[in-house]
Amino acid sequence: MIPRYMVNFDLEQLPTVHTDVIVIGAGIAGLFTALRSAEKHKVLMVTKKSLLDSNTRYAQGGIAAVISDEDSPAYHRQDTLIAGAGLCSSSAVDVLVHEGPAGVKDLVRMGTEFDMEDGRYALTKEGAHSQRRILHAQGDATGAEIVRALSEKTKQDPNIEIWDDHFVIDLITHEGECFGALVQRPNGSRVFVKAKATLLCTGGAGQLFRYTTNPDIATGDGIAIGYRAGAHIRDVEFVQFHPTALCYPGAPRFLISEAVRGEGAVLRNMNGERFMERYHPQLELAPRDIVARAIVSEMENTKSTFVYIDFTHESEESVKQRFPTIYETCLYYGLDLSSDWIPVAPAAHYMMGGLETDLHGETQVKRLFACGEVSSTGVHGANRLASNSLSEAIVFGRRIVKRIDKLPPIGETPPVRELKRSQEHATQPVVEKKLKLQKLMLRYAGLVRNGKGLAKGYEELKRHLTIFDCSLSKREEYEFANLLICGLLTTEAALIREESRGGHYREDFPERDDLVWRKHTVFSRGNGTTEGRIDDV
């Protein structure tokens, strides 16, 4: 059984810090909501590394919003619903497409400089979008530019205090209400931060898998912390594997953006054959899950560990101008995007599911909010549409702040204690355990799944539950425990869903089954699994 709290503590013995809003995490969701909250409230931002370490920083493609006169919220809505494969919440998608443009204006007001052409925004098109609606910055460094602008503003804001290198172990709750967080300082001491509102903006769980485009901090902390606190965890079987991550000895799984295919790049197998016409009429611009599985299928057929992306039809000049970051990163490893075929393979990229929230970002636990990749707002359904993630963070961040403004003051701190756990220390080094877990997830709960493998993976993961009997004190131990919870939830959800849809593919149930499975899988620590029906779109 997964315990309610990871460590022993007694609130009455701990030092207490008071703030209005605690923001956990520093990607676009954390930075943006912190800045908007600070207009009226005292904000404490807690990040386990630093303001510049987040998934947002690696986002290349851009941010999707209806800006052009040829585009409309109705088109954006339709594209999002089609990609989401029948599991989107239509009301959440409506919120996204109608409020996205105002969110972009906020970003510009906060100092983000998007690329311009002839005095207007340079809009591009990405896979599964029917219109040009992607704003980008410095070609392919959109996330880095947004983080630069927002973190500079955050550091200057007198209402925001930033705690780098601090780890949130658990949230303190009482009778379904969140009172703040138990935080470990860099020196190992612990403190209780009490707040009127607590925001989880901790990003995704890419580190569940051996190969991922996510940085090493993406260990699913928010999902696990929220699960222990009593929030509902929804649809975590839907993991998006990005089809084209650099696959080269010595190089990280660096993203070769969707936008490269949007600008005409083609995929070729080991034998040099272009293959996407065998899989989908939209060829290289088919939805990500289809492209990723097509690549795996070609890799199996040609007995290779990668396929190629071929962008050599473009001039060196235009490649450099449009994709400077990708061009330079490839060049660093001796690959020239304008003249070489670049070896790529799928890698875990984005988690569609997460903490279930309402349309104002609030979870089932009162005063606990989730924003960004850690949340499940209903926008992404079974498969996220490219570049909708940054928009979602801003749109729902704005709504969360409006809800926080209306929250009543918080009551007396409840006398919470957790003093039951034994004090043994873990024997096997955590780094070994983590690698085992990642290999296991890749093998049994990766791009192509089946019931037998998922059941085996689930049982093997359960063996690691003894970690909760140990005395945990280091960041990597907490991270492993959080990854383990995410791995168990993801595997169990994938085992339950006997169909294929969006980012979840079962070779033993290859068809989508709307009659039985047009519903959500929802886990809660108190109630086990529940199935939520989906409102008809």
From TrEMBL:
Entries under SUPFAM superfamilies matching the protein: FAD/NAD(P)-binding domain, Succinate dehydrogenase/fumarate reductase flavoprotein C-terminal domain, Succinate dehydrogenase/fumarate reductase flavoprotein, catalytic domain
InterPro entries, sorted: FAD-dep_OxRdtase_2_FAD-bd (IPR003953), FAD/NAD-bd_sf (IPR036188), Fum_R/Succ_DH_flav-like_C_sf (IPR037099), Fum_Rdtase/Succ_DH_flav-like_C (IPR015939), NadB (IPR005288), Succ_DH/fumarate_Rdtase_cat_sf (IPR027477)
All residue ranges annotated as the FAD-dependent oxidoreductase 2 FAD-binding domain in the record: 20-390
Main location: cytoplasm
Domain Fumarate reductase/succinate dehydrogenase flavoprotein-like C-terminal, first and last residues per copy: 436-527
Cofactor(s) recorded in Swiss-Prot or TrEMBL: FAD
Associated pathway: Cofactor biosynthesis; NAD(+) biosynthesis; iminoaspartate from L-aspartate (oxidase route): step 1/1
Location in the cell: Cytoplasm
Keyword check for Flavoprotein: yes
Similarity comment text for this entry: Belongs to the FAD-dependent oxidoreductase 2 family. NadB subfamily.
Function: Catalyzes the oxidation of L-aspartate to iminoaspartate.
Protein name: L-aspartate oxidase
Organism of derivation: Paenibacillus filicis
Higher taxonomy: Bacteria, Bacillati, Bacillota, Bacilli, Bacillales
